Amino acid sequence: MPNKKHARILRGVLILLIIAGLVASAISACGDKDILDPRNPVTLTLWHTYSQQLNESMSMLVEEFNNTVGAERGIIVQVAYIADAREVNDRLMMAAHETFGAPELPDIAVIYPRIGITLAEMGLLVDLNEQFSEEELDAFVSDFLDEGRLGRDGLYILPIAKSTEVMYVNATIYDRFAEETGYGYAHLETMEGIIDAAERYYEWSGGKALFYPEGMFNLALVGFEQLGDEFITGRELNLSSPAFQRL
Predict the structure, then answer these.
(1) ∠ CA(101), CA(105), CA(108), 5° rounding?
(2) Angle at the Cα of 219 from the Cα atoms of 198 and 189, rounded to 5 degrees
(3) Is 109 helix (H, G, I), strand (E, B) or coil?
(4) Helix axes of 85-96 and 113-121: crossing angle, nearest 10 degrees
(5) CA distance 15 to 93
(6) Within 13 Å of residue 146, how many CA atoms lie on the same side as its CB?
(7) Interacting residues of 173 by C-beta distance below 8 A, sequence separation 6+
(8) pLDDT at 50
(9) pLDDT digits over 124-182, tens only?
(10) Is the CB of residue 183 less than 8 Å from the CB of residue 35?
(11) Which helix (H) or strand (E) holds 218?
(12) Are 196 and 211 in contact (CB under 8 A)?
C-alpha cells in the first residue's frame, strides 16, 4: 500500500497542479465563459518525476481525482510522461523551443526553479497569484513561495516538495562510545564537532566510521549556504571558494 505520508503530500500536489493546469490550458483562452462540462471533459496532461512507491501513490490519486471531482466538474488528468528530473527537464526544453520531433508542452509539470526561470522568460508559465487568495498563500512557507517567484513579481512555481538534512544517531552504540570517551551529543552540533568525534570514534572502534553523509552534493549545498557562499555560480561549481576548502 502507498505510504500515508506520501499520499497526503501527493494529494496536495495533484490538487494544486490541477489548478495551475486549468489556468494554463483552458481558462485563459475562454475569458469569462465556464469551460468545464462533465459531458465534454477537459484533459490535462501531467509530467512528473515520481518513481516506485511515490509513483504508485500518484497513480492512485490521479485515479481518485478523475473518478470524483474530475468526473463531477469535467476534468481528466492524464499522466503523459514519467522520468527522472534531468530527462523531464530536457524534454521540456525541447518542447518549449519546438525542436523537431519534440512533444507538446504538458499542462502540468513537476519542475525545478532553474528550469522554471527559462520557461517564465519564454512566457510559458502562468502567474498563480491570480488563482489564490492571500489567505491560501499564507499556508505556505514564505521563503519557499519567494523561490517560486523566480525573481519576478508573479508566482510561477508552487513549493510542493522540499527537503531538509537530518542526522540519525545509533544511540545504543554512541552512548557506549560517549561514556568511555567523553564525546557526548554536544559534539554532534557542528560539522567540526562531528569530524572530531569521528576521528576519536575511528580509534575507539578499531577503524570503523562514525559518520557519512547520504549525499555529498547536498552536504556541499548546505555547507556553502551556512558559510555565506554559493556552491553554484552561473553554471559552474564554485570550487575556488574558501568554503569548498573548508568543507
Answers:
(1) 150
(2) 50
(3) strand
(4) 0
(5) 25
(6) 3
(7) none
(8) 83
(9) 988 888 778 888 888 888 888 888 888 888 888 888 777 777 889 999 999 999 999 99
(10) no
(11) helix 216-226
(12) no
The torsion defined by the Cα of 152, 157, 158 and 163, in degrees rounded to 10, comes to -100
193-208 exposure pattern, b = at least 16 Cβ within 10 A, e = fewer: ebeebbebbeebeeee
Alpha carbon 155 to its chain's center: 16
What pLDDT does 49 receive? 86
Query: Which residue type is seen at 219?
Result: L
Please report the pLDDT score of residue 33 as a whole number: 53
Determine how β-strand 232-233 pairs with β-strand 108-109. unpaired
Over the chain, what is the mean pLDDT? 82
Is residue 120 exposed (0-12), middle (13-18) or buried (19+ Cβ within 10 Å)?
buried
Q: Which three cell numbers stand for residue 212?
A: 557519512
Cell of 244: 569548498
Domains of the chain: 4-148 (3.40.190.10), 171-246 (no CATH)
Sequence-separated (6 or more) residues with CB below 8 Å from residue 86: none
Grid cell 513579481 in the structure block, residue: 153
DSSP conformational letter for 186? G
pTM of the full structure = 0.62
Cell of 184: 557526548
Q: Taking a C-beta distance cutoff of 8 angstroms, is the pair 2, 53 a contact?
A: yes
Q: What is the pLDDT of residues 4-36, one digit of tens each?
A: 444 444 444 444 454 444 444 444 444 455 677
Residue type, 81: Y
Answer yes or no: are the C-beta atoms of 44 and 76 closer than 8 Å: yes
